[in-house]
Fold:
Amino acid sequence: MNFPSKLIEDAVNEMAKLPGIGKKTALRLVLFLLKSDESLTEGLTEALTNMREGVSYCRKCFNIADKELCMICESNMREKQIICVVESTADVLAIENTGQYTGLYHVLGGVISPIEGIGPSDIRIDALLERIRDDSEISEIILALNATMEADTTAFYITKKLRPMGVKVSSIARGVPVGGELEYTDEITLGRSIVSRVSYE
Amino acid sequence: MNFPSKLIEDAVNEMAKLPGIGKKTALRLVLFLLKSDESLTEGLTEALTNMREGVSYCRKCFNIADKELCMICESNMREKQIICVVESTADVLAIENTGQYTGLYHVLGGVISPIEGIGPSDIRIDALLERIRDDSEISEIILALNATMEADTTAFYITKKLRPMGVKVSSIARGVPVGGELEYTDEITLGRSIVSRVSYE
Structure:
């Protein structure tokens, strides 16, 4: 693609580094900013800079926080005895949006991945074990990791470490999505949904 | 959507003002920036700020330019007697990418739209007429406007103004897109493609 200006080219190249944004979309966004009032570009760049520089992480669960503790750890409305272990802060947001969970979280910040050179000490497993050791109130750990090989390895590792600590460990259910059709569900998911069938009480 | 931090919320809201970017995509982009190295956010915000503050417009054709004249107006390789009239700088880029046009451009910066209160004097029609008046070399004007009611009105207005000036005026062809199937082409386009049929020579 030929650009009429070096400045436009730079802006497009930077914008295209974002996930899911190709050169064409980046150009469309850049030309939109160019056409719009200057305050829009200012607002965007300021908000991004403030966000990147200002956001800190909860010292307890490593979720995004404005203060030392995140809103969830600080709240009096949450069940303090359950911890849901997730990979990233995006997962916390996704679970929070369901409105079905009232416990606390622990953000690992990744999963064990030998290929990428990420070992158990590179993610926040030790901090999780310490949290459980220090707080006798904690009685249940829910593993809410993605359905990947690496996440399964991580879940296996954490489960092994947690067994001697006397807390109940569970994983979120895998199965046919609500609204999904059996015919179009992959075999592994469908297989798992049969193995982990739920009996009517 | 609940956000764990005011800073994240602000960044998402600003990002979601871009066209085609909803709250969910904005959140994904913001969390990506948060997870990535700080230099990525810095690079992006700097490039956008420099672009918005630094880009100027060609004083002749109003295309984006780094200097007083744009690269196209300045070039010695272009045919100086043809001007292609377009609505926006994005259209210039689109036509340049075809590699089929070697003349000059004139960017109107919009089209006549009574509903939005945009009259002939709000877009750069006078500048176009002046350009033709001042430069006797110019012999042909190609109208490359979008296929909307407003663009048709604008084309009609420009054509009327150009008639006494003795330049040849044409419009880009409307018809069935290359690779398109007749069966799925809308009636108006198909109708126009029959009316403007091209005879084999």
Observations:
- Chain B touches chain A through 58 residues (CB under 8 Å).
